[in-house]
Amino acid sequence: MGIRAEPAESVLARARRGDAAAFTEIVALHHAELVRVAYLVCGDQDLARDAAQAAWIKAWQNMAGLRNPERLRPWLLSIAVNEARQIVRSRRRRPVVQIDSMVVEPSSAGPSPDRVDLIAALGHLTPADRSLLALRYVAGIETEAIARATGRTASGTRTRLSRLLARLREEVRDAPDR
Amino acid sequence: MPRIDDMTAFERLVTRELRDHVESVTDPRPIAEIAATAMRARRNPFARLGWAGESPMSLPLPVRLALVAALAGAVLYLGLLVGGSRPTQPAPPLGQNGTMAFPAPDALTGRSAITLVGGGGVTRTVTADPTGNASCPAWSAGGANLAWVQTSADGATESIVVGDRDGGHPRVVTTHSETENSGEPPNIHGLSWSPDGSRISYVEGPALWVVPVAGGDSKVVVPVVYGTSSAAWSPDGRRLAAKGPVDNDGRQQIGIETVAADGTDPHVVALMGKPDPGAYAWSPDGSTIAYNYGGSVFTVDATGASERVLVSLDTATSLTPVWSPDSRTLAFFNAESTDGDFPATTNLVLHTLDAPLEAPREIFQPLGAGIGRGLRDVTWAPDGKWLLIVGRQGNTFRVVRVPLAGGQFEPVAAFDDTTPSALINRCPVAWQDNRPVQAP
Fold this sequence. Notes:
- The structure holds 2 protein chains of 2 kinds.
- By secondary structure, chain A is mainly alpha-helical.
- Chain A has 8 helices and no strands.
- In chain A, helix 2 crosses helix 6 (127-138).
- Chain A starts with 7 loop residues before the first helix and ends with a helix.
- Mean pLDDT of chain A is 75; it is low at 1-5 and 92-116.
- Chain B is mainly beta.
- Chain B has a domain at 44-274: YVTN repeat-like/Quinoprotein amine dehydrogenase (Methylamine Dehydrogenase, Chain H, 7 Propeller), CATH 2.130.10.
- Chain B has 4 helices and 29 strands.
- Chain B has helices at residues 7-23, 31-40, 61-78, 420-424, and strands at 100-105, 112-117, 123-126, 133-139, 145-151, 157-164, 171-177, 189-193, 199-204, 207-212, 219-222, 232-233, 239-248, 251-260, 267-272, 280-282, 288-293, 296-301, 307-312, 322-323, 329-336, 345-352, 362-364, 373-380, 386-393, 396-403, 410-416, 430-432, 435-437.
- The model of chain B is unreliable at 42-92, 337-344 and 420-428 (pLDDT under 50).
- At the A-B interface, helix 2, helix 3, helix 4, helix 5 and helix 6 of A face helix 1 and helix 2 of B.
């Protein structure tokens, strides 16, 4: 017989009351994803980890206000991309790490040409645009939930996503042949 | 590769490629360490100021020294003269005595101390315990006294300390300890002086407390407040407004309630459908509370008897709506979206309370003044005829004077984003005879 998982509602309720074990459970469940979405925004692994850590600080401090377990994941992810954006902004002021150009890390197999095009095109977007892409396509969050978590309208978010996609498509299409 | 002319296929391609791109990114640290770091950060005094990076105290000593020197240098260069706090807000780090207070690492001890910056850039650091950390400074109305939170070296106790205007003669007015908190380290924040300077409200644990400054026990006045909200005193000092979970016919909702300063006579004045960071403020005449929720600005009778949406723009920023001195007009910021994209600019909006809802609002677009986005602060001149707004452009914060009778915006000051004013997002300019002035 498998172990019965504690309902998400109960873990969140305990974390909201300041239960460290419950909060650690939530971190265990979501941390890897927070790092991944943050990476898409800032393009640097160390900065992405910093952003995810900063997101957990905010989450712990503000968890008391969150009651609906369904909102937890979009909420956490939106905090993480915001932290990543802030880090990008602050690093721009103090150019310690070059993050403007999204460097494609070499892999043994080597990236496919269309992948290089797409990832290179990401570097031409603003951190805010990359945040939206991270939430929608890396995390797979529905537009309505993104709008709720970021305090924007669903229609505005849809419009923006559609323009972003159109722009990316143009960039990939216009990329010079290699 | 799918045909990228097909948008749905392209969407699938984007999803696959982006997920592949981030898949290998991991964090090698143990989860318990990550969680513990987040929970410990509640006691980092810099986190309370919205400090985004690591605690300056964890930096090497030479870097800390350079940081302090850079701050002091910037202050001396600008010769800051500060002032102009809002009459109905909790006393901000900018005192009406022309001195700014903020926590910064002490160059010698590496511990956080309260740094005071006065006119002419004179600085002084204050702490009641060089082995511990000082944070959360708050001026009394008029700036005669400074209160701050003093955390012991081991973090097991936190006290509210009150000193003179220069931080001298510090004395403890209340202490919370780990022992009385069932083993949880204390976390005092959100200090707010009563208008007459006789009491201080603060948040510790989930509750809002009030302590008499002259001596006496702290008392819980609201058992649970939302997030890290601090309370707002009514102008007559009789009541406090706080945001927290309130009962709505048996259902718990986030709302704003007012209570008498002794915790009796609670009144729910506003209910919110979901938690929202929007701020709230009493009108100077004490009759009305304005608050920001879900991008709209609401006003409500302070007794909760009536409520109306003052303006619904869907994009009003969460900055506290700021009352004019005559309690008739509210100033707030509104992020203007274009083409569904991120806000292109931020406007300053003025709305007069007794105007009908459909009446045109006065909207100022400070883009031409070089601060189109990132507006941070707005302050009314004492006569209500001018406003000062602080906005950011690149690495520079600019202060602009807005004549409400019409006319051009007038640049008043500019300061770099490493200065203390930038750190607390406040206006480094004082009013003198209703004219903004900056120290030479």
